[in-house]
Structures are given as structure tokens and as C-alpha cells.
Amino acid sequence: MSLYNFLDENLFLPIGDLVNGSQVASELKRMRRNDFLSEERIDAIQNAKLQKLINHCYQTVPYYTRLFDQLGIKPEQIRSREDLKLLPVLTKQIIRDNYQDLFSTAVSTSRRHIASTGGSTGTPLTFCIDNAEWSAWKASTLRAWEWYGLHLGDKIFSLGGNSINQKKKIITLKGAYDRFIMRNHKFSSANVTDECMMEHYSNLMKIRPAAIRGYGSSLYILARFIERKQLPVCPVKAVLTTGEILVEEYRRKLEQVFHAPVYDAYGAGDGGILSHECPSHKGLHISEEECIIEITDPLGNPVPDGEVGNVCTTDLNNFVFPFIRYQVGDMAVMKKERCDCGRHTRLIHEVMGRAGRLVYNKKGTPISPLMLWIMMYPELNYHNPSHQAVYSKIDKFQIRQDKNGDIDILLKLNDANEPHEQFNYILTNYRNHFEGSQVNLQFVDNIPTLPSGKEDYCVSEYTHQQ
Ligand SMILES: [Zn+2]
């Protein structure tokens, strides 16, 4: 451990929490202590947190007061994860229809931080978190990094920034926290040209991080670039992937080029899902003190362990805008099995739904999954109310690329009567990136699921590669 590691943990982190109003330091200590708890202890903590959340919801969240009363259910009846099936699932549509009624009246508006997610299936969502949630999120990530031999204060090189406009740098409190305490050096992964990759490579070699982090697809492009140019790489302890499905081929390439193990993570800001791959690579350990994940059929009935179903999450930390049995839109398999690493939390396997595969334009240039999103929501700044207004008009979208490389963009609006011209920017963005392809924008009433039954925002039959 270096002096920076020591100072970061004992000085910078506590000061950062004080200034920021967060509790990452204490949360991290708790999570470290509880890393190897027995199943019984985990269940007991989970049940206690669940009961507190359910009471809070019934008493202070109008949507849940109404729901419980309509169903004739008393909060005391929900005592454990098994009892949750008494409640219906919470869908994105229900959230949109009841948005204001989902805020707790007991939490002042000053404690609300509007957040948003791209979602995995082309359905964006605006929701709300507070500092407690944010702290648990950071602490859970830090604890997982420690599993990989990383320590707070180690430098991380991240390809995950999602703004096209890198020049517009506004230093926020949380941004400074990220940079100087988490030591996360973030770079945009939106553009994936060779020039951008060269710049990323130079930054990587300058920073000499302990770990590389980002979307699997973005890191894969960087790895391929490094391999093609036969560039030397600095040693790293781990490659951390997040944000989309990690394709096996990408994992192999990352391990081969960066000479380090790859650890995947699956999280969702909406619903508070936190799960990280452990060094035994047996699956992703769910942070079960923070969230309850059920795998269900579309109606919310739990499916047996080991079977594919919808990911349904109850966030045990969000008391501002509670998520109970929230259908994230991903599908996954969950198993309760002993892991060699000694942790007793349930494991998620085979998350399906977050398209992580690259698509290519006719020149053979890869377009990252993130870029497909950014072209749809150009600034990706949901915190700006005027952007939210435009984005919230889009219910769902799907990009379909045929064998010839031509593109159909299916757009389902919340209100079919919205003037279509305001969405022409989407067409322009896609035509710019898919040069030589025919690009059409179609307004549709429904976006069909794939033959496999899952939803996906990008389907491509085009196989042109570099
Ligand atoms: Zn494990």
C-alpha cells in the first residue's frame, strides 16, 4: 500500500464524505465486516431492512399506500423475500404513470437527487436517489475492487464517460469525489475511431493505472487497436467491465492484451442492483444486504433457481423513491450455490438483455452500443429539464440492421400525436455514423420482442468487420 492509499482511506475519504454529505467510509467498513457472513445472518439483515422499507412505503409513499389498501395487504405481511410475491411487479410504465406518487413525502425535496438510466432495452427512466443510496453504490464497488487486490487510492483508467462533448467539463462535487478519492480517470467511450484510441492509449500509458475499467465493447476496441499497432501496455492488476453484457470473445481478448484477469459487474441505478464477479469467476455475487433480486416470470411469479426469468429487484437503500419488485428489463439466471471464495451471497449468471456486441458501419468501423444511445439522446444529460422533456417523449426504440448494413430505427412514442419532425436529429446522427447505409426512422405502436422473448435495443444481421 502506498502513502496515497493510506491517506485516501484515512483522510481524503472521510473529508470527502463530510463535504459531500455521503457515508462511503462507514458503508465500506460495514461491507468489509459483512463480506463473509453466513446465509442466516444475510437473510436476517435483509429481512430487517425489507420490513423497515415496507413500513416506510406504506406510511409515506402514496402509490404504495394505495396499492396495499387496494390489495388488502398489511405491511406486517411482508417479512421476507418469499412474501414479496404478494405484491405485483413495478414496471417502467407504472413508474411513468405514477411518478409523483412514488416519492416519499417524508423526505425533503432537497435530499432528492434526480438520476436516470438508459436502461438495457431502449426504455429510459428518470428516478430519484439520495446520498445513502449513492454511498452504498460506491462502497459496494470499492469492496469488490478489494477482492481483486486493488485498494482505495489506486488509479483507475475508465472508458465510460458518456458525453460526446469532452470540452464541456463542469467539475461537480461528485465529479471531484470520483477523481481524487476514487481516483477514477474517466474518458469518453462514445467515439471509437483510431485517433480516439491513440489518445486513450497515450492517456493509459501516462496514468499507468492499477486497473482498467469500462464497457466491455469499448475496452475490446482499445485492446484490438493496441494489438493491431503492436503497442506495449503497462501492467495492470485487473480489467473491470460493467454496463453491458460481457461477450466471451471480448473477455478473452482483454485478458490476452492486458495480461490481467477480467472481472465483470452488473448493476442498475434504478432498483439498486449491485453485483460483482468474484476471483473464483463462478458468477456475480449480489450485494444482498443492499438489494433483493428475484428471477420471475413476466407476471412476477418466482421461477426456480437455475431457470431464466425477468430480473426483479427491491432496493433496500432507496427510501426517497422506493423500488419494490421492479422489473429492470433484463433477463438472467440466478443460483444459490456455494462459491469457492467463501462468500454466501446468491450468484447471478448469464445476464441477458444488455446488448454488448458491437455493430459495424459499411466502412467496417465499429459503433459502440453506447454510441447508439447517445445518438438517440445526444447530450445524455437527463438532469437538464428541457432534455428530459424531449427524451421522455420516447417510450422505446430499437435499431435493426439488416444483412446489407441498412438500418431501420423503430421509435415508439409515449404520445403517437407528437410532431415527428422534432426527432429528425436521430436520423441525422445515424446517417452520419452509418455512412453509405440507408437509414429509416419508423414510428411504431409496438416494438416486438425477439424470437427468444427478450427485449433488445439493437439487433444486427450485418457481419462486416475490420
Ligand atoms: Zn465467489
In a few lines, what is going on in this structure?
The chain is built from 13 helices and 19 strands. It has 466 residues and is an alpha/beta fold. The protein starts with a helix and ends in a 6-residue tail after the last strand.
Task: Explain what you see.
- The structure is a single chain.
- The protein contains 13 helices and 19 strands.
- The longest helix has 22 residues, at 39-60.
- The two termini are 42 Å apart.
- With 466 residues, it is of the alpha/beta class.
- A hairpin with a 7-residue loop joins strand 1 and strand 2.
- The strands form 4 sheets. Strands 4-3-5-6-7-8-9-13-12-11-10 form an 11-stranded mixed beta sheet, sandwiched between helices. Strands 18-17-16-19 form a 4-stranded mixed beta sheet, with helices on one face.
- It has a domain at 359-460: GMP Synthetase, Chain A, domain 3, CATH 3.30.300.
- The protein binds zinc ion.
- Zinc ion binds next to loops.
Give the topology:
Blueprint lengths: L2 H18 L3 H10 L5 H22 L1 H10 L20 H6 L15 E5 L7 E5 L1 H17 L8 E6 L11 H8 L3 E5 L5 H14 L3 E4 L1 H13 L9 E4 L6 H11 L3 E7 L4 E5 L6 E3 L4 E6 L12 E7 L10 E10 L11 E6 L6 E2 L5 E2 L1 H8 L8 H7 L2 E8 L5 E7 L10 H10 L5 E5 L14 E3 L6
Parallel strand pairs: 3-4, 3-5, 5-6, 6-7, 16-19, 17-18
Antiparallel strand pairs: 1-2, 7-8, 8-9, 9-13, 10-11, 11-12, 12-13, 14-15, 16-17
Helix pairs in contact: 1-7, 2-6, 3-4, 8-9, 9-10
The protein binds zinc ion.
Zinc ion (ZN) binds next to loops.
